[in-house]
UniProtKB/TrEMBL annotation:
Its cofactor is thiamine diphosphate. Belongs to the alpha-ketoglutarate dehydrogenase family. Pfam families: 2-oxogl_dehyd_N, E1_dh, OxoGdeHyase_C, Transket_pyr. Residues 599-792 form the Transketolase-like pyrimidine-binding domain. E1 component of the 2-oxoglutarate dehydrogenase (OGDH) complex which catalyzes the decarboxylation of 2-oxoglutarate, the first step in the conversion of 2-oxoglutarate to succinyl-CoA and CO(2). GO terms for biological process: glycolytic process; tricarboxylic acid cycle. This is 2-oxoglutarate dehydrogenase E1 component. Homodimer. Part of the 2-oxoglutarate dehydrogenase (OGDH) complex composed of E1 (2-oxoglutarate dehydrogenase), E2 (dihydrolipoamide succinyltransferase) and E3 (dihydrolipoamide dehydrogenase); the complex contains multiple copies of the three enzymatic components (E1, E2 and E3). It comes from Spongiibacter nanhainus. Its EC number is 1.2.4.2. GO terms for cellular component: cytosol; oxoglutarate dehydrogenase complex. Keywords: Glycolysis, Oxidoreductase, Thiamine pyrophosphate. GO terms for molecular function: oxoglutarate dehydrogenase (succinyl-transferring) activity; thiamine pyrophosphate binding.
Length: 945
């Protein structure tokens, strides 16, 4: 019976009319299990053309759906006699036409003419040939349904269809978007590209403006080349289309209502961008080349510098900020994202409508640097999304100096990594300015429409070598032989416009002469620059400028207010069912707030946040496991055991409180820390915290520490109040979970650039965190935070120490001993203090005092001197640390401690000694027994047991 029904369906209206839905369901079933459909249908589906001999199940069936939909619109034709085979053959060809269109959407980019030098080896793509789809030029005049092809009509000849897909996908633009699973996004791109065949008909004004921007781009490079020959500048020659591209994206974004745009880029083209897009005065650039500028701090080279300005667009004034960037290329990407997110948060813009990030990349760096992948991976997460980023790859086709494609990457394109987040990728020939303009507007529109990342691969070349002092032909002879004969992008476009009768040669020459004259006159040459900008678009840093590192900040507060904050933080609404151990933690915190229990670390830390929020200071915390805390001490985010929903008590401290954001991060250190650095440099009124899961995990973000956190102020004048919490302490957990590499941070310390603290009590961490935002100083704070001390019975404080106290850079002896009888003084930091004190008490060593250095940098000379002065009969001072001798604070701090000690009774020659682990290539022992043995030994030596 089923076979008879199938035959009837097949002979009547088989895949037309109302049966389309039924056939589509059959096709879906066939894709998962071919044997689950009747034989007749299986034979029919198997006759569909395959792609490169791949399995039939791998062929996208969206074109088949399109075909079914088109046939459903067509009238049902009677099938009888000899006409049956004729109609069937046409319908089968119709399917092949749809498959042909799909092939061009998927693989047309592989035949696109996107290399301006014509050096790319483009392999034959069988899918794009008519014969592959069992079609030929003999079918050119046959009319077919156009399906979802956007060419303005439902039916067209094969000739028209073939020409449309060739023009759209195989000329100066090569698009990769079929990897996107969202049908709406794919259809949007198809419509935008196919509707104009990837070549809009631009008017005189647009084309003249394109020429003017190209003239500016080329004119600056020629001027610099003639004024300063051989001087390193990483010029844009060969990639001049970047300037009209940036101009187009800025204007387009401004028309959508963007108020700020943050731009990140490496070296190439940076000077051109500064002058022709951001409006830096050319005379200032010339002064920098000639050494006529006054530097603050250590400064940095010209092609690392940032800049900011305002430009006018059709949608109003837009503030542009070009981020500072070291030579670590792609590391600027997450820094830009952090700055953008901060600006969006300030504007209460969770969608990302008012602040737009644009990041420019090099081809080899985009493919080779892991931080690119990390930045893409964070792009849609709650903590780090910015409403999509426009990525531009300045594809010079050679990585550094000698890198060829086969050495630079393992993928077809340098942009393939972007497919991981289903970002559309538009490859464009840099020598076709109008195609560049088209994809620039297309990318800006896509970002605006879908709030997702989009990538432009600007395929160009370097007319000179890696820099102007480099001779590239030694390693790239064929490429540079071609380049030496290749006309510039501007010359090619001028010739094109002259040939079309749009302009004459004299007009183009006059434009170039006027630009050169403006440069020589020291005029601004960015056409849209706002000379008197709206300062409301700027971040006001004036309250944080010019302060000494020890500027006071009162971190005490009224005891009643403190208790009120504590009470509100500990309230859990009805309906929020928390896990048993978490409920016990909050029960204990309520007792601590009432004074019935001493304050532990987790409560003191969260109280610091709560009191800051109450006073109007926003707080942002990110990192792996920060909601709970790696060691389960924080529990700032409660998870309802009934429905999995989240409740954050610190977001409910008071009705008019400041914002509190806390996010568990993706498993990244480099990109996340760079993001938070960017955030902190843009939101000076925030307490911004990044916590490492274990302190040594910061190793994975060392470039951020070295190039931004420790030196950003001295190089670029960039203030930053970022706080890093790095769990540190030797509990026998092995080399990877002990040391936060304190010595590395201390080695970077100079000119009061960062603060390095090792708090040992809850009160200390409370006041340290509050001090970081209350006082107007904005310097990074690096904290060696504890692990075992989080629950140590002795590591507790009182509410009075929180309400009435302050942060102490040095903590004196706390046991009741006679200081006049002390002959041996032990200096230390962190957890080892509690180990030393326990052993001293056990052995009754009352002639030994233990003093803690809670702040190792800036070094507290005066505070330490004041403490030591209370011990008149000292005979020996030793520094004791858990870390091996070649690590920890010893080598970087001993001269500072010795300086203080030598100031007491120089006639007695009071010296500083060391007690601790022996030098080691590893941070810590891998076996608990060995760890314990080492610790007992140096504790005994420190106490002279």
């Amino acid at each position: 019976m089923q076979k008879e029904s199938m035959e009837l369906l097949w002979k009547s209206s088989h895949i037309s009319g109302g049966n389309a839905a039924y056939v589509e369901a059959l096709y879906e079933t066939f894709l998962s299990d071919p044997n689950a459909v009747p034989e007749e249908w299986r034979d029919y589906f198997q006759q569909l053309p395959r792609a490169n001999d791949t399995a039939i199940s791998d062929i996208p069936h969206s074109p088949i759906r399109d075909h079914f939909a088109q046939l459903a619109k067509a009238p049902v034709r009677a099938i009888n006699g000899g006409g049956s085979s004729e109609v069937s053959a046409h319908e089968r060809k119709q399917v092949r036409v749809i498959q042909l269109v799909s092939a061009y959407r998927q693989r047309g980019h592989q035949e696109a003419q996107i290399d301006p030098l014509g050096l790319w080896e483009r392999h034959r793509v069988p899918d794009l040939e008519l014969q592959y789809h069992q079609l030929s030029e003999a079918d050119f005049d046959t009319t077919f349904q156009t399906g979802s092809l956007y060419i303005g009509k439902d039916q067209a000849t094969l000739r028209e269809i073939y020409q449309a897909v060739r023009d759209t996908y195989c000329r100066s633009v090569g698009a990769e978007f079929m990897h996107i699973v969202d049908t709406r996004e794919r259809a949007w791109i198809q419509q935008r590209m196919e509707g104009v065949r990837s070549k809009p008909d631009y008017g005189l004004e647009a084309r003249t403006h394109l020429l003017e921007r190209l003239t500016a781009a080329e004119g600056l490079e020629k001027s610099l080349g003639s004024k300063y020959p051989g001087t390193k500048r990483f010029g844009l020659e060969g990639g001049e289309s970047l300037i009209p591209m940036m101009d187009a994206m800025i204007q387009r974004s401004g028309s959508y209502g963007a108020k700020e745009m943050v731009i990140g880029m490496a070296h190439r083209g940076r000077l051109n961008m500064l002058v022709n897009i951001l409006g830096k005065n050319p005379s200032e650039l010339f002064d920098e080349f000639e050494g006529k500028v006054t530097y603050q701090g250590s400064a940095d080279v010209k092609y690392h510098q940032g800049f900011s300005s305002n430009v006018m667009t059709s949608g109003g004034e837009v503030h542009l900020a070009l981020a500072f960037n070291p030579s670590h290329l792609e590391i600027v990407s997450p820094v830009v994202e952090g700055s953008v997110r901060a600006r969006q948060d300030r504007r209460n813009d969770p969608e990302g409508n008012t602040v737009v990030p644009i990041v420019l990349h090099g081809d080899a760096a985009f493919a080779g640097q892991g931080v690119v992948m990390e930045t893409f991976q964070m792009s849609q997460t709650r903590a780090y999304k910015t409403g999509g980023t426009i990525h531009v790859v300045i594809n010079n086709q050679v990585g550094f100096t000698t890198s060829l494609q086969e050495d630079a990457r393992s993928t077809e394109y340098c942009t393939d990594v972007a497919k991981m987040v289903q970002a559309p990728i538009f490859h464009v020939n840099g020598d076709d300015p109008e195609a560049v303009l088209f994809v620039s507007q297309l990318a800006a529109d896509f970002r605006q429409e879908f709030k997702k990342d989009v990538v432009i691969d600007l395929v160009c070349y370097r007319r000179r070598g890696h820099n102007e002092a480099d001779e590239p032909s030694g390693t790239q002879p064929l490429m540079y032989r071609k380049i030496s004969k290749h006309k510039t992008t501007r010359d090619l476009y001028v010739n094109h416009l002259v040939e079309e009768g749009v302009i004459d040669k004299a007009f183009a020459d006059q434009m170039a002469a006027e630009y050169r004259q403006a440069l020589d006159d020291g005029q601004h040459v960015a056409k849209s620059l706002v000379k008197q900008p709206n300062t409301a678009l700027f971040v006001d840093w004036t309250p944080y400028l010019g302060h000494a590192w020890d500027v006071p900040g009162d971190t005490s507060m009224d005891a009643k207010v403190l208790k009120d904050v504590a009470a509100s933080m500990n309230q859990i609404p009805e309906g929020v069912s928390v896990q048993r151990q978490v409920a016990k933690i909050y029960e204990d915190r309520r007792k601590m707030a009432a004074g019935a229990m001493p304050v532990n670390w987790g409560f003191a830390e969260t109280l610091a946040y709560g009191t800051l929020l109450k006073a109007g200071h926003p707080v942002r915390i990110t990192g792996q496991d920060v909601g709970r805390g790696t060691f389960s001490h924080r529990h700032a985010v409660l998870h309802n055991q009934n429905d999995g929903s989240r409740y954050v008590p610190l977001q409910n401290v008071a009705e008019d409180q400041a914002p509190f954001a806390i996010y568990d991060s993706l498993l990244s250190e480099e990109a996340v820390l760079a993001f938070e650095y960017g955030y902190a440099t843009t939101q000076p009124n925030y307490l911004v915290i990044w916590e490492a899961q274990f302190g040594d995990f910061a190793n994975g973000a060392q470039v951020v520490v070295d190039q931004f956190i420790s030196s950003g102020e001295l190089k670029w004048g960039r203030l930053c109040g970022l706080t890093m919490l790095l769990p540190h302490g030797y509990e026998g957990q092995g080399p990877e979970h002990s040391s936060a590499r304190l010595e590395r941070f201390l080695q970077l310390c100079a000119e009061h650039n960062i603060q390095v603290c090792v708090p040992s009590t809850p009160a200390q961490v409370y006041h340290m965190l509050r001090r970081q935002v209350i006082r107007p100083l904005r310097r990074p704070l690096v904290v060696m935070s504890p692990k075992s001390l989080l629950r140590h019975k002795e590591a507790v404080s009182t509410l009075e120490e929180l309400s009435d106290g302050q942060f102490h850079s040095v903590l004196d002896e706390t046991d009741d001993i006679d200081k006049s009888k002390v002959t041996r003084l032990i200096l230390c930091s962190g957890k080892v203090y509690y180990d030393l004190r326990e052993a001293r008490r056990e052995h009754g060593k009352d002639s030994i005092a233990i003093v803690r250095l809670e702040q190792l940098y800036p070094f507290p000379y005066d505070d330490l001197r004041a403490v030591i002065a209370q011990y008149p009969n000292l005979k020996k001072v030793v520094w004791c640390q858990e870390e091996p001798r070649n690590q920890g604070a010893w080598y970087n701090s001993r001269h500072r401690m010795a300086r203080v000690i030598r100031s007491f009774k120089p006639e007695k020659n009071l010296l500083l000694g060391y007690e601790g682990r022996e030098p080691s290539a590893s941070p810590a022992a891998g076996y608990t027994a060995l760890h314990v043995e080492q610790q007992k030994k140096f504790i005994a030596q420190a106490l002279k047991l």
